[in-house]
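> call design_seq(struct)
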C-alpha cells in the first residue's frame, strides 16, 4: 500500500521522510524492521533522493549512541543500498552509479564504528543482528569491495557472531544464527570466488578447517552456529573437502554421555548435511570429495537414519523430537534430490528403512511429530517426478492413503491418523515398526491419543481373530518388540499397559484354550524379566494387569501367574501390595474357576479386608 500511495509525486518524499524521521527509531524493533523494508520498496520511486539525501542522513545515525536509532539506521542503509544496486543493475548501469566515494566509505566503516561503540553500549545482540544483515545486503548488492581488507573484517564479525551465540538471550539466538549464516552465504558467493569459479586454496583451507574444529566445541550453541554455517557454504568452497565436512557433521549427530542434552546441535547438524548434499549435487560415479555419489551415499543415509532413534529427554521434555523432525526432513530432501538425478543410488534396503521408520513415527504419541512424519511419508509415497523406487507394498499404501485425500488427512487429529496407520499392521514389512509406535501411543497418558489408537488397534485385532496365521504373525511381532525393548522404559512401560488392555479386550482369545501356548509362555517370561529388581511404580502396576490377564490361559501358566502375583502381594512397596490385592480380587470374580469354591470366600475376605 505504501508503494501505491508513494506513486503519487506529492506523497513520495513526505512518506520517505516520515519513515526516516519517525519510524526507524521506533521503540518496537518490529516497526523498525518493517520501516526499513518499506524504504527498500520505495527506493525505485525516488532513487536520487534516496542516494543523495536519505543515505547521507542515515550514515551518521548508524554509528550514533542511541540503540534504537542505530539499529534502524543500519538496517535502512542496508535495504536502501540493496534496492539502489538492483535498480542500477536492471538499467544496465554500474552498481555504484548512485553512490559517491563518501557513501561507499561510510557503508564500509559501519561495522568498525559500531564495534568501537559496543565496548561502552548495551545491546550486542542488536549489533550482531544488524551488521550481519548489512553484510548480507552489501554482498547481494555486489559492492566493489573485492580484495578490500573490509572483507576480512566482515568474515571476522560473522565468525564472532557464531562464537558469541551462548552469550545471547535464548529468544534472539535463532534469529542471529540465521542472520549470520545468510550473511556468510552471500559474502562467500560474491567475494570468495575467482574468475575460474574456484576458491583460493589457502582461504578455503582456513575457513573449512576452522569451522570443522568448532563443531566439537563444548558450547552447544557454537556447534549449532558452525554446523549451519558449513551447510550454507557454496559449492566451490566444499569442492575437495566434502568428506571432511560430512564427517565433521556426522560426529556432531552422535550422542555421548558428555553431550547427551545437545539436541539442538544434533538437529542443526542433520539440517546442514541435507543442505550440503543439495549444494554439491549428485553424480553416481563422481568423487566423494565433490559429489553425493555411490561411495558416500550409504554413510549419509546411515547418519540421517540414526537421527530417527534419538529419544533424549530432559527438563525441557522430548528434546530428541527436534532431532527426529530434522532427520525426517533431511531424509526427504536427500531422497528427492537423488531420485530426480540418479535414482539408482537409492537401494531397496535404504528405501525400506526410510519408509518403516517414518511409519513408526507416524504411529507415535506426540501430535506435531506424528503429523510431520505422516506428511513426509505421503510426500515420498506420492512423489511422481519420477516415483521413488523400492517402496515396499506401494499398491497397498496407495489404497490406504489415496492421493485425493493426502491434502485433507489431518495427522494431528488422533481420530483421523490412527485408523489409517493401524492398517499398516497387515503389511509384513511395516508391522514391527507400526506396532512399536502404537505401543507408545496405546500405553500413553494422553486421553485422546490413547482412546483412538487403542480403538484402531482393537478393530484391527477383531478383523484377524479368525485368521490363525495372521494372529501368529502379529503375536510373534509383538513379542519381538517386547524383547528388543526389554528394560527400555520409554517403550516397555507403555507396552505393558497396552498388553493389559489387549488381554482385557479378549484380543488373544484364539489361544486361550490351547494349553501352554508359546505366546503366553514367552509373554510371561518377558514380563517377569522386565520387572526383575525394578522399583518403577508405573511399570510394576502395569505388570500386575498383564499377569492377571494371563490367568485366562490354560495349562501350567495359571500356577506360574498366581505364584508371581503372590510375590507382588509381598512387595516392599505398600502401593504395589494394595494394587495387586485389588486386581487379584477382580480377577477372581471374573475367572471364578481358578480357586476351589470351598475356600473362595476365605480368599476373597483376605484380599478385601486386609490392610495391605
Amino acid at each position: 500500500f505504501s508503494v501505491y500511495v508513494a506513486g503519487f509525486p506529492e506523497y513520495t518524499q513526505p512518506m520517505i521522510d516520515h519513515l526516516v524521521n519517525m519510524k526507524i527509531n521506533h521503540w518496537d524493533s518490529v516497526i523498525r524492521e518493517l520501516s526499513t523494508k518499506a524504504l527498500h520498496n520505495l527506493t525505485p520511486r525516488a532513487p536520487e533522493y534516496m542516494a543523495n539525501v536519505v543515505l547521507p542522513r542515515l550514515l551518521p545515525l548508524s554509528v550514533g549512541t542511541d540503540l534504537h536509532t542505530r539499529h534502524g539506521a543500519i538496517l535502512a542503509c542496508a535495504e536502501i543500498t540493496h534496492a539502489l544496486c538492483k535498480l542500477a543493475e536492471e538499467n544496465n548501469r554500474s552498481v555504484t552509479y548512485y553512490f559517491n566515494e563518501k557513501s561507499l566509505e561510510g557503508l564500509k566503516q559501519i561495522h568498525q564504528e559500531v564495534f568501537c561503540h559496543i565496548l561502552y553500549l548495551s545491546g550486542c545482540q542488536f549489533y550482531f543482528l544488524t551488521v550481519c544483515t548489512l553484510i548480507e545486503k552489501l554482498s547481494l548488492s555486489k559492492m566493489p569491495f573485492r580484495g578490500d581488507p573490509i572483507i576480512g573484517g566482515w568474515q571476522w564479525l560473522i565468525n564472532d557472531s557464531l562464537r558469541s551465540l551462548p552469550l545471547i538471550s535464548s529468544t534472539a539466538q535463532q534469529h542471529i544464527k540465521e542472520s549470520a549464516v545468510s550473511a556468510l552465504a552471500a559474502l562467500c558467493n560474491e567475494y570468495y570466488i575467482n574468475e575460474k569459479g574456484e576458491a583460493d586454496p589457502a582461504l578455503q583451507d582456513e575457513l573449512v578447517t576452522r569451522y570443522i574444529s568448532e563443531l566439537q566445541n563444548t558450547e552447544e550453541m557454537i556447534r549449532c552456529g558452525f554446523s549451519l554455517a558449513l551447510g550454507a557454504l557454496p559449492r566451490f568452497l566444499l569442492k575437495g573437502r566434502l568428506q571432511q565436512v560430512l564427517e565433521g557433521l556426522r560426529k556432531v549427530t552422535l550422542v555421548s554421555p558428555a553431550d547427551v542434552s545437545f539436541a539442538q546441535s544434533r538437529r542443526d547438524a542433520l539440517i546442514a548435511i541435507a543442505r550440503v548434499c543439495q549444494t554439491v549435487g549428485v553424480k553416481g560415479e563422481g568423487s566423494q570429495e565433490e559429489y553425493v555419489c555411490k561411495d558416500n551415499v550409504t554413510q549419509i543415509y546411515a547418519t540421517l537414519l540414526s537421527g530417527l532413534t534419538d529419544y533424549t529427554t530432559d527438563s525441557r521434555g522430548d528434546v530428541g523430537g527436534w532431532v527426529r523432525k530434522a532427520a525426517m526432513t533431511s531424509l526427504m530432501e536427500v531422497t528427492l534430490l537423488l531420485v530426480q538425478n540418479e535414482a539408482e543410488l537409492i537401494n531397496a534396503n535404504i528405501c525400506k528403512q526410510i519408509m518403516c521408520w517414518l511409519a513408526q513415527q507416524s504411529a507415535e504419541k506426540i501430535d506435531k511429530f506424528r503429523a510431520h512424519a505422516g506428511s513426509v511419508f505421503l510426500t515420498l509415497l506420492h512423489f511422481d517426478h519420477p516415483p521413488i523406487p523400492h517402496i515396499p507394498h506401494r499398491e497397498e499404501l496407495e489404497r490406504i492413503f489415496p492421493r485425493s485425500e493426502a491434502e485433507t488427512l489431518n495427522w494431528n487429529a488422533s481420530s483421523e491418523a490412527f485408523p489409517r496407520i493401524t492398517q499398516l499392521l497387515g503389511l509384513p514389512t511395516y508391522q514391527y515398526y507400526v506396532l512399536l509406535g502404537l505401543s507408545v501411543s496405546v500405553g500413553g497418558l494422553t486421553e485422546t491419543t490413547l482412546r483412538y489408537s487403542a480403538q484402531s488397534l482393537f478393530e484391527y485385532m477383531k478383523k484377524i481373530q479368525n485368521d490363525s496365521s495372521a494372529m501368529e504373525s502379529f503375536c510373534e511381532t509383538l513379542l519381538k518388540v517386547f524383547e528388543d525393548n526389554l528394560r527400555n522404559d520409554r517403550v516397555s512401560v507403555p507396552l505393558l499397559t497396552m498388553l493389559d488392555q489387549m488381554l482385557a479386550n479378549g484380543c488373544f482369545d484364539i489361544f486361550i484354550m490351547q494349553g501352554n501356548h508359546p505366546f503366553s509362555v514367552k509373554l510371561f517370561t518377558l514380563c517377569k524379566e522386565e520387572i526383575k529388581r525394578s522399583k518403577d511404580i508405573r511399570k510394576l502396576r502395569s505388570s500386575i494387569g498383564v499377569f492377571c490377564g494371563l490367568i485366562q490361559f490354560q495349562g501350567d501358566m495359571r500356577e506360574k501367574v498366581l505364584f508371581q502375583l503372590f510375590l507382588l502381594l509381598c512387595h516392599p512397596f505398600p502401593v504395589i501390595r494394595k494394587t495387586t490385592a485389588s486386581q487379584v480380587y477382580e480377577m477372581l470374580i471374573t475367572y471364578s474357576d481358578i480357586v476351589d469354591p470351598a475356600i473362595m470366600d476365605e480368599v476373597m475376605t483376605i484380599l478385601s479386608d486386609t490392610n495391605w
